[in-house]
């Protein structure tokens, strides 16, 4: 049997070989593009590194830079652009993003281009599209929920490289293909899937395209970096603790974690790689990352419009409701209270305050929610952490298969879910622990239902984290995202502003311990974001409110 | 501390004392009304025992006999009938049903009549109703999910009698009150809630009003007997294995088990009485028993129209969809294959065959589903049985509190869920057992999803059980209902025909072992029924199809 180093190297080489040679730049050119040695080093987006590479034609640049997924679909179905041209453009841009940020794991560009040609021919022959996603390239996280026939689902473990490629498509993959999508790559993740640093021993670390010295987030970090680099018009991630929303807020993209099981998650890689799902615990879910609100809507309405239950019996058979609040609707927006245990860092606090000020200015009704322990992010995070711990065997044990070492973020254990004390006695036998956790979750849900109903809220606005993207391996416990997984509330990320050492030169004079020390220099240029949340099954209302808020904040 | 006998007697006496003396008949008069010593002995409905009692005025008889809940609501809101008149009529009829079938546990007629007067005054003063159930009497099963402030939730255990009465209303109870309902009684259940004989040491055994020598079914047996006696226009039961559908089919009423958590089930009596619910296991659900399809619709649309999540954070916040197939829609109806391990008894087989023949005649598309093990009632029942066994402590242990004995159906263990062999190794530790059961359930769900999608079914028609109501303590394992709890599919019962020794004098010459021996004499006169099923969350389609089928079968 090969060593883990050999397995990793051979798989990495396979990926690299799938990128056409003419799209590969020499290392010194890449350094130059990323601004090595200059003040702006690693600020790939600010430096327009991809445009400056000169590799994209003007049309390819326009396709990738000046459209969103929705407008590309219109152009393809209207015969203004071919799927082939769009697919080649995104493959090329993804190849560049890969070289600059190390965001890809599986690369199947040629297969994608062949399919795009077939779809173009189909449209020409039949004068109709295959489905609502006809010809659109879509990227997929390299997680266990996205098997693509003929390709690996590595999950960031060298042990998985020696497994055979997938023999069938996952439910969502098949649904996307039936809708006409073109799949062309998978994207990087952390070893264990449970850190906010997308690093593993096969593919290395994904870098943040806004500033390569910062984490791209995780676990859908490859998607975050790829979508932010506009190497994908629409990416699919998964989220059990924040894994869609963390890379979104780190990389400055839009992201949406739906209510679980509305988007199909079934037909995963077989056990032992599926053990994170404990029945009755916290259900992971799939959802989109994109560069516009319109494209989050596109993904959700299209996927659910295909009736996912037909693909996956574990998906909920609940129709998508067409909700349009219009542009004049005034929302009642609750503002989540800061948890003193997880104080907001200066740029995060400023972004939230500015967002609230703009919402007031736009005429929305703002309600500041009380800071009570019963509904606090800290309690939500601790309960979620204990739920994750119910799984019969964790990912941790799988390193042993090949003897590969833990990557730093895993070894550090930066996710000490129970650090503030377990809300439920961890010594209880499993049955009683499950029962007590379920009761505690119901209590937490009741506290939030009261917040909602007593104030007749439309949505809650909250930080997505108490930090922005941070230097490698220092991302804290993501309680501000985890709490909504515990509640199974839909929650989305809207990018809003930037961290700036000029505007926020100093730490806040907040009480209590800081989870991470604020470093104005290190964080300068990192995207800021807000999180918008609605009650369980109110995904439609959540997105409709996000569109209004996005307009008011980003004038988009 | 009082003995269990003392506790039971005092509570029974309290119930009896709540029935006005002028509504109580002497024992010999009751025997006479139930036909004691005649050929028709115990056939209360056939003998019109309640009408013959002479206790009801003509108006009270008309109110209870010739209306359904929907038409009563129209008359009350239209000032044609007062809520007081309707409430008094049903209290009186319920008092008679209690004396004839022993169906009640808690009686609060006076409170109900006072509330009805208040509602009448409200309507007079405000020219508008309190809500969509304004003035309608509704009966509730005496289960843990229905706490009514000031009254006991006994659960059929003498130990619970020494507990204090409920201090708050359950979520559904509060919702019904907010909608304008009048609550006036609770109804009998089995000790343990897990047999089909509604007998316990406090209230004794509920008798079947069609034939008192047969079980009324369980666990909502009191509701079945009361609704069939027309002592309630609308009853609420609960169902984790068939507990709404079994009494419905035994007593000849309509009944509906919705997808779980659409009707609120929260705010139950505190542990240790809630241990049947294992997170991620099979979720019990509340639903209606009534004398018409229209009233099942009324209950579901009204309850979900009140947005149950506002009352109960564990309720799913999914709107009720108005579905009306109209009268001309031709359905595609799958016919469940008989499980040879649970062969259909002659009247059950005949009712199903006749129903299918009428559906064909009405122009519907009938598809006979294959008999495969992967989707069989037997496998569904065995898996469900193992899920029930996950609960950390069963009801069984609670007898020990007062030393009361097990009633016969519990002692017999007529529900040997695992008798055909456990589908999942019962020696596995809990975590792996839960995991394996979840996977097995997903496989079962996949088999059913294929049945559905491959044939584009609207609904499935099936027996509700392989028997009708049977003599006391002989009801078999209810796999034909349990399988839909495992899948969490909505399923309803439509009464259709009767067991008849004249038509079916002999057992079928079926292969294999018979769960219960067919006894043409004992079963003669028992109601027959069919069960209609739709996929999870398709409650609206299930009821809409049931209305069409009911019209075609019962010309109602």
From TrEMBL, chains A, B:
It comes from Neoarthrinium moseri. It comes from the Eukaryota. PROSITE patterns: AMIDASES (PS00571). It catalyses: a monocarboxylic acid amide + H2O = a monocarboxylate + NH4(+). GO terms for molecular function: amidase activity. Its EC number is 3.5.1.4. Substrate binds at residues 193, 219, 240-243. Coiled coil: none annotated. This is amidase. InterPro entries: Amidase_CS (IPR020556), Amidase_dom (IPR023631), AS_sf (IPR036928).
